[in-house]
Each structure stands twice: as structure tokens, then as C-alpha cells.
Amino acid sequence: MGKKIVIIGGVAAGPKAACRVKRLMQDAEVTIIEQDTLFSYGGCGIPYYVAGDVSDEAELRSTSFHMVRNEDFFENAKGVMIMSGTRAMAIDRKKKTVKVQNVASGEEQEVPYDTLMIATGSKPFILPIPGVDLDGVFTISDLHKAIEIKDRIARGKVDNAVVVGGGATGLEMAEAFKDLWGVKTTVVEFMPQILPGIVDKPFAAMLTKHMRDNEVDVFLNEGAAEIVGEAGKVVGLRTANRTIAADIVIMATGVRPRSEIAVDAGLQISPMGAIVVNERMQTSDPSIYAAGDCIEVMHLVTGKKFYAPLGSLANKEGRVAGDNMAGIPSTFKGAIGSFIMKAFDVCIGATGLSLDAALAEGYDADVALTAPSDRAHFFPTESIVCFQMVFDRRTRKVLGVQGFGPMGDGISARIDAAAAYISMGASIDDFGTLEMAYAPPFSAAIDTINAIAYVAENLCDGRLRKTSLESFLAWMEDFESESEWVVLDIRHLIEASPFVEKFGAEKWLAVPYSEIRARYKELPQDKILIIMCGSGTRSFEIQSFLDSVDYPNTLVVSGGLNMLRRMGVDWYLG
């Protein structure tokens, strides 16, 4: 046999690297050490298995040609040996051996290597609260737990489910409980929004409303204080404000790198506990590589290292590690944290930096919003989509894009295009001329990604003056008080009249878009006019006109009522 390559970890990055090595070096002796008996599965598919979209757990472990990735498959089809049910205990870098232990028997042995790879993944973060050891408390950390969760639901043992954590996995699990099984489901999130650190507040608010519209209770700004049990089993979850009945509690409070074996071996570890690697996936020991959720990678916008535990990245990193272990120079430059998820019949996606993250990084950041049609307005299946572009005013560099709209490929296609462009350092102007495939069933002639770039361009060049959604909503909450602001609603009178009736013509003026040029002298000049339409496009046009006739005190609500309605504000009538 040729070179001995040993890989610790058999879920995503490890099997990808192993198979890549064997394709490039057929004489290599490749061994995967995996402590579980189920391995090489699509962990990101677990919520969809629980939901019933994936009918059998074996499908998560199957190839596209429907062969289950078990020991026989790897040995016979791939030429890779799997030591399943075997825990890697320690690495001896001088002897180039890995001490392993059979989980069932306790028997120990040493496995020699020429090149080693660590792909130990991540481990769930468990809140330090009473009750986490009760029967019925689960993390989404492996396939065994997913099988047990689905079995309990299928046997009618779960009427009430509580998900602790409003990140992507927690929300996907909440949908799984409610959508197929009809379980009363509650999400408890410690932060003031769901998807914290991933999307900004307006987009989180739209998703929160949609979850609630689908009868998932969402409590924000509430930390889990205690999991309540009786006779050793979960019966509820207590926060500072309430006690929620629960037959099952899902702890979805994030993950941390599983890097203990690397720490014990003296490899370089980042401050947040991830294994430090270079672009070739080499650790501080040139004979040892690492990939997947146990490492940190370069952020292609900020130029700083960050933690991105994503299955898509783990597979790419594993392939790069496999190349280099086989002697082929290959690099992984980094990532920008692209994300997308479905929630019932909508989807939400993001790539790059949020506005909050960009400001925290010191950028001169601003945000453009729009909510146009997702395809030609005359096409029967046209729907509204919401997009945000985060950009740096000084350099015009695009820093991030977020999208929200109907479930389908429309949001995904724009997020993917944005991810590629942002990774290359594209500017607002680059996005404005980005070519997207066009036909009326798929997009408008001016694609949504071009449209949001135009809004950003107008903001950056000082042609568009806006008020943030947060500022406008704060004003609406204090609507009864004296204010310098008045809404100028330029939509059709059928759309605008209910708002005028509710708030009064002194605070909510209705002058249709097509009549502004003839009637502008009716508008007050001692007030700031907050121009409102569906998406913000017509509002900008009217702002430009009013500037030309000496009505300069105007602000546009970018995203308009299309976004405000989806955010679920209390005063919205539609």
C-alpha cells in the first residue's frame, strides 16, 4: 500500500476528503475513524426528516444513486476503510499515531498515519440551566436524536413542543413540529429578534410574523430559566415571564467547535476554540489537516477569521484538504456566510454582512431597501419580494444582501449571485449592471438585484433621502403627539383612504402619484413629508419632483408598505 492517511470524523468534511484522496491516489491507505455508528449523512436535512419531507433516515445517508453510505459502501465502492463506533482519544504527533477506543468494548489500539486530518465537527451548546438532563430534552446533534424525536411524535407522545433558540435550525425544527404533525409549538429566543447576527431586524420581523401567522408562538427577549420536569420527564419550560407546557424541548442554542483532541495535541487554536488552518487546510503541524465545523475560515469581506459551521463549506473544505493530502496544491480562500432557509411557504436568505455587523466592523455602512415584484408584473404568478443591500458609502463596496419572499428559487438565485459578486469585491455599480437571465415567468426586465443596486446608488450619490423603517415605526408608535412629520401616501385612493380615515388627513395625506405634479401646492411646507408607496420606487420619483419645485423637506420610506405589512406592525390595515 501507499501513503497512510487517517481522518478523524465521518460526517461531512471527512468522507469528502477521503473519497477525494482515493480518486487521486488509488494506492493510498485511507481510514476514517468515527465514534458513531451512523455517519456520512446530511445533517442539514434532519429538520426535513422530522417534518416528513424526507421519509426515511436512510435517505440522509444515501448517495444520489440511492446507495446507503455504510461501511460496505465505503470499503467496496470507495476503497476507504471505516472504523465506526471508534473514538479517537489522542494524537501522538511524534510517533504519528492516533490512540483509539472501541466505544462498545473499550478496547484500545494505535492507528499509524503519514498524514492526518481532523474533521470532528461541532458540538451543541447546552444552556447551564436546571432540567437539561430530563427525558425529552434534545439537541439536534446527530441522526440518532432525530430518529428518537420523530419516533416520539409518530407515537403520539408529543402534544406541546418548545424550541429554545431562534436560529435557523431552531426555526426549521419549529416548522417541522407544526407543519406536518400539528404539534403546538413555541420558540423562545433570548435576543430581541430571531436569526440574530444573520439578518437585520426588518427581515427578522417579517419572518417572525410569518411564523406566528402559521400558529407558531414566538417569544423574544426571553431567556430559558428552567426546564420543568415531573418523574424525570419534561413537562414545561420556564422563562422570567411565563411557564410553557412541553412534552419535548429542543435545545437549539448554537454550536461550538469540537476541537478537544487538537487542543490536547498542542495544535494552534483560535480564541473562540476553533482549529487554526491555512488556505490549504493545514494546521500548525504540516502533517495534520483540518476541515469542517471544527475550524475557522477567512471572511472574504472583512478579511478576518470567523466561524461558519455550514455543511456546504465543510464539503468544499474537505475536498481542498483531500487535494493537498494527495499532493495537489489547492486552496480554500474563505467564505462570506451565505444562508437560506424555508419557513412554511416563504424563504429568507442572506449573504455577507448585516447592517449591524458592518457598522460594528467600522464601515461607513448604510442600507438600501426595496420590495418590488419578483417577476414581470403582468405574469399571473407575480409576487412581492423584499430585498436589502448593505453597502459602504465611502468605497461603494457592497457588503451584504438579504432577501425575503415566497418559497422557491427566486430568493436563492439572487442571494447566490450576490454571494459571488460580493466575494469578488463588487461595487454598487457592478450590481446595477449585473446580467441575470430574463423571461417574464422568472423575473422582471430590471431584475430585483439590479433594482436594489439602483436604490443604493441613489442613496450613495445623495439623490435619495430616506428615513429608516425603525425611525418611521417609532414615529407611528407616538402618532398622537405633535410632530413635524406627515405621511404623503401616493398610492391609489382605494389603497390610501383607509389610512386617512384611521389617522386623519392632518397626519396622513393621500394624493395619488399621477396627481402630484398638478396638486403639489396643496402640500404643507412647514412639515417633513414622509413619502409612502408600495415599494419606495414611486416615492423616490416624487421626492425628485418636489425637490425641483422647492419642496425639499421630504423623506422616503424605502421598502414602503410592502415591507411594513409583512413586518406585522400593529397599525397596518391591510
UniProtKB/TrEMBL annotation:
<dbReference type="InterPro" id="IPR036188">
    <property type="entry name" value="FAD/NAD-bd_sf"/>
</dbReference>
<dbReference type="InterPro" id="IPR001763">
    <property type="entry name" value="Rhodanese-like_dom"/>
</dbReference>
<keyword id="KW-0560">Oxidoreductase</keyword>
<dbReference type="InterPro" id="IPR050260">
    <property type="entry name" value="FAD-bd_OxRdtase"/>
</dbReference>
<dbReference type="Pfam" id="PF02852">
    <property type="entry name" value="Pyr_redox_dim"/>
</dbReference>
<keyword id="KW-0285">Flavoprotein</keyword>
<protein>
    <submittedName>
        <fullName>FAD-dependent oxidoreductase</fullName>
    </submittedName>
</protein>
<keyword id="KW-0274">FAD</keyword>
<comment type="similarity">
    <text>Belongs to the class-III pyridine nucleotide-disulfide oxidoreductase family.</text>
</comment>
<dbReference type="InterPro" id="IPR004099">
    <property type="entry name" value="Pyr_nucl-diS_OxRdtase_dimer"/>
</dbReference>
<keyword id="KW-0676">Redox-active center</keyword>
<feature type="domain" description="Rhodanese">
    <location>
        <begin position="511"/>
        <end position="572"/>
    </location>
</feature>
<dbReference type="InterPro" id="IPR023753">
    <property type="entry name" value="FAD/NAD-binding_dom"/>
</dbReference>
<dbReference type="InterPro" id="IPR036873">
    <property type="entry name" value="Rhodanese-like_dom_sf"/>
</dbReference>
<dbReference type="Pfam" id="PF07992">
    <property type="entry name" value="Pyr_redox_2"/>
</dbReference>
<dbReference type="InterPro" id="IPR016156">
    <property type="entry name" value="FAD/NAD-linked_Rdtase_dimer_sf"/>
</dbReference>
